[in-house]
Amino acid sequence: MPRASPLISAEDFLPDTPEPTVDELTRAAQTCQGCELYQQATQTVFGEGPADADTLLIGEQPGDAEDRAGHPFVGPAGQLLDRALSAAGIPRQRCYVTNAVKHFRWELRGRRRLHVKPGMAHIHACRPWLDAELAAIHPQLVVCLGAVAAQALLGAGFRITRQRGQILAQTGIAPAVMATVHPSSVLRMPDDETRRAAFESLVADLRVAAEARKRARR
Q1: Cβ count within 10 A of residue 160
Q2: Domains of the chain by range and CATH?
Q3: d(CA 73, CA 63)
Q4: What are the pLDDT digits (tens) for 104-157?
Q5: DSSP string spanning the chain?
Q6: Quick check: 87 and 183 in contact, CB under 8 A?
Q7: Residues 6 or more apart in contact with residue 10 via CB below 8 angstroms
Q8: d(Cα 30, Cα 96) in Å, to the nearest integer?
């Protein structure tokens, strides 16, 4: 077993095979100690979905519900994402969903475990898992959900405020890459009207992604 240190890398925990499958990656990730976040997380929350998925969705990190369940996007934000994908015409069953960081970073306030944004060191430490997932799946479309996911994949200079909803080609990542807001940002809106508008904007971005998905599959 590789030794743990406060911040090393997931590279030391990848399967020792040339082209690991998603199943092999999932099993190997359960013992990951590539950064200190494993110490307070309940478990590793790896990506899930068909190994031949044509669409790969990347979020920031698991939330409280995901950390307890061991599955990505099963909490309120995941449920909203399912509704948005359905409205945009992207079959949820053809999507592989994952996060840039595989362990839940949190702080305790009262009895609640509240999300804490992962640092760039955590994102860099976890990047080998994301690269391995992309290599195993070969998606036609990648959608980054939120600024952390977009910057993890596309670089620190990427800005959701300027570039959301735009299809990026020739990235070397997939035939089509797009970034939009994380569904949790919709849930944080202060009232029903702004939540509805934010949800409609998310669906509009995903419709652009759906069209790119169709073109890539032809």
Answers
A1: 20
A2: 10-217 (3.40.470.10)
A3: 8
A4: 999 999 999 999 999 999 999 999 999 999 999 999 999 999 999 999 999 989
A5: -PPP-SB--GGGGS-SSSS--HHHHHHHHTT--SBGGGGTSSS----BS-TT-SEEEEES---HHHHHHTSTT-SHHHHHHHHHHHHHT--GGGEEEEESS-S--EEEETTEEEE-PPPHHHHHHHHHHHHHHHHHH--SEEEEESHHHHHHHH-TT--HHHHTT--B-SSSS-SEEEEE--HHHHHTSSSHHHHHHHHHHHHHHHHHHHHHHHHHH-
A6: no
A7: 29, 32, 34, 102, 125, 126, 127, 128, 129
A8: 18
Separation in Å, CA 72 to CA 97, 108, 162: 7, 21, 27
The model carries a pTM of 0.93
> Are the beta carbons of 7 and 36 closer than 8 angstroms?
yes
CA pair distance 82, 71, nearest whole angstrom: 14
Specify which residues 168 forms β-bridges with.
177
Contact 105/61 with Cβ under 8 angstroms? yes
Task: Read off the amino acid at residue 33.
Answer: Q
Look up tokens 């015409």; give the residue.
89
Residue 19: its pLDDT value, please? Answer: 92
